[in-house]
Design a protein that fits this description.
By secondary structure, this protein is an alpha/beta fold. 41% of the residues lie in helices and 20% in strands. Strands 3-2-1-4-5-7-6 form a seven-stranded mixed β-sheet, sandwiched between helices. Strand 4, helix 5 and strand 5 form a beta-alpha-beta unit. Helix 2 packs parallel to helix 9. The longest helix has 18 residues. The protein is globular and about 50 Å long. It starts with a helix and ends with a strand.
Length: 246
């Protein structure tokens, strides 16, 4: 990810509708599928600038954040986070079977990840029996555009594709769905427009929006979470998997 994107993420992560909606989605999945909360030992693989790690670790338990970027780790420390380890996602310096909860949020897509299956195998290794993993990532490679250049996207995934990889690593899938579905049509329109009229620089889609629009977008995402409690969604810009190590 470009340095400016890390800084923008840090500045917006605790107030921007998209980051808050993703956090609430993960919180919902934890409530539905994690038997023990707070966890005794949890790992956030690829914790970025630390927004979810700060939010969820506040509930208690021991949390470790794994991150390769020195800038991202510095921004995590600026939040007051500890328990941070600089390491790549495919070589997590933790003992096998230690984590009863693992988050891997928008990590596999990144071009620094040379072996996404290897990352999933490493996630499986550090999970405790009956532990739960929540994995999200970017969906549908045909949506690639300037946003992906700015955040260093290597690949976007189909749901069946990433589910197969997760099962191949040894996990049992508990829930699989697309997300960011109710906003799929406007997002596709925006992405295709940016692809054909990209402007002068590659920049992510994470930009400030008017407060009124942000409230509307947040309400739409809340409605989608209501649906996701009851069903899986057939299309969207994000893939979501909840998996368990049996």
């Amino acid at each position: 990810m470009e340095p400016d994107e890390y800084r923008r993420m840090f500045d917006l992560e605790d107030r921007y509708w998209w980051f808050l909606a993703r956090r609430e989605l993960v919180r919902m999945l934890i409530e539905e599928h994690v038997a023990r909360w707070p966890p005794s030992f949890a790992v956030d693989v690829g914790c970025g600038t630390g927004g979810p790690l700060a939010a969820f670790s506040a509930a208690g338990g021991k949390w470790v954040g794994i991150e390769q970027s020195p800038l991202a780790l510095a921004l995590c420390r600026k939040r007051g986070l500890s328990g941070l380890v600089r390491a790549s996602a495919d070589n997590v310096p933790l003992k096998s079977g230690c984590a009863d909860l693992l988050l891997c949020l928008d990590v596999l897509y990144h071009r620094n990840v040379k072996d996404d299956r290897g990352v999933l195998s490493e996630c499986f290794r550090v999970m405790a029996p009956q532990g739960t993993a929540i994995i999200t990532d970017s969906a549908l490679n045909w949506l690639r555009g300037p946003h992906d250049e700015a955040v260093h996207t290597r690949q976007r995934y189909r749901l069946g594709e990433i589910a197969s990889m997760i099962e191949g690593a040894g996990f049992e899938i508990v829930k699989r769905t697309y997300a960011n579905s109710l906003l799929f049509v406007p997002t596709v329109t925006h992405r295709l427009a940016r692809r054909f009229f990209p402007g002068t620089e590659a920049r992510s889609d994470i930009v400030d929006v008017p407060r009124a629009l942000e409230r509307i977008l947040s309400a739409i995402q809340a409605g989608e979470r209501w649906l996701l409690r009851r069903m899986s969604l057939p299309i969207g810009t994000t893939v979501v998997i909840v998996a368990r190590k049996s």
